[in-house]
Amino acid sequence: MTLSFSNKEFDVLVVDDAELNRQLFSAMLRKMGYSPRGAVDGPSALKAFTEKRPDMVLMDVQMPGMDGVEVVREMRKLCHEWFPIIFISANTSNEHVIEGLNSGGDDYLFKPIHFDVLKAKVASFKERLQMLHELQQYSLRTKEESEAAHEFMKHFTQLNRIKDPMVQFFMKSAEVFSGDLIAFARTPDNRLNLLLADSAGHGLTSALSVIPLTQPFYTMSHKGCELASIAQSINQHVREYLPLPRYVAAILVSIDSAHGTLQVWNGGCPTAVLVSEDGGEVIHQFVSKHLPFGVLSPANFDTTTELYSLSEHSYK
Could you give the count of Cα atoms lying within 13 Å of 289 in the half-sphere of its Cβ? Predict the structure, then answer.
């Protein structure tokens, strides 16, 4: 939805101690189709401002008691969202102009005000304000969609379901969305299957790229399929669902505690390291021997896994 307001809805607060000036500026603004309201001095301007924040302020500089510069400083303190403030003064000195702009004013007009000049200024600031509101709405929608997508990805990858006593993991992505994936599943014969994946690229596109991996991994693991078959199926899914040149580097691991074996398929990931229980000794390294998922066609895909016996070592 695009935020928009008509001229009639555009609220302009006219602050001037001279009644004739207030009437003149208000008449000009009404002729342009805007909705003006007046304030006779600084305190009444701040009261009107706090009751209803205007879309724009026309501010006289020289007023008895609290001058326009002081009023503008207070308005900027009261509201951190940007809205246009135009100073109006008979004093054309550079010193007064600089002071007004430094206090929070956005522009300066000199009396007597020409109708067409005021019309152009107000229209220009209204357009800028409209663009700002649209950007804010876009930012809000993007944030809401990002949060929803993040929850979807979290649920889809089933990270909240990883409660296996043999599994401890830590994952911290550089962005809200990333192509990093961790998945664990038990087979019917109690083997523990592990999938670590890293999709090429960054952001939501990269995160979506790991989706084709989860379905065949979980489904085939729960059916007790061999690691080579799972790798073949994942590669086929990536080829079918991801447009080239998207690909996903991954490591598949199957831990069989009953038989003391560790089976690994490494396609394009850094070397996986098996360490001793105390972490002080590197027992074995599983280097990448395959290309990432999605690079090769099913006919050329290599499902060969590396089998390692754990019988002689304690492991983590």
Answer: 11
Does the CA dihedral 69-72-78-79 come out positive or negative? negative
The 10s digit of each residue's pLDDT in 185-223 is 899 999 999 998 888 665 666 666 677 788 899 999 999
Alpha helices in 39-86 (DSSP H): 42-51, 68-78
Residue 203, classed as helix, strand or coil, is helix
Tallying the residues shown for the chain, one arrives at 316
The two three-digit tokens of residue 103, written as one number: 């206090």
What is the CB-side half-sphere exposure of residue 202 using CA atoms within 13 A?
4
Which residue's structure tokens are 């246009």?
84
DSSP line for 141-182: HHHHHHHHHHHHHHHHTTGGG---TT-------SSSS-SEEE
Q: Give the per-residue pLDDT at 203.
A: 60
Q: Which residues contact 113 (CB under 8 A, 6 or more apart)?
A: 24, 25, 28, 88
In this predicted structure, what is the pLDDT of residue 312? 58
pTM of the model: 0.54
Could you report the per-residue pLDDT of 42-65, keeping only the tens digit for each? 999 999 999 999 999 999 999 999
Closest CA to 257 of 178, 187, 173: 187
| CA angle (112, 115, 117) in 5-degree steps | 85
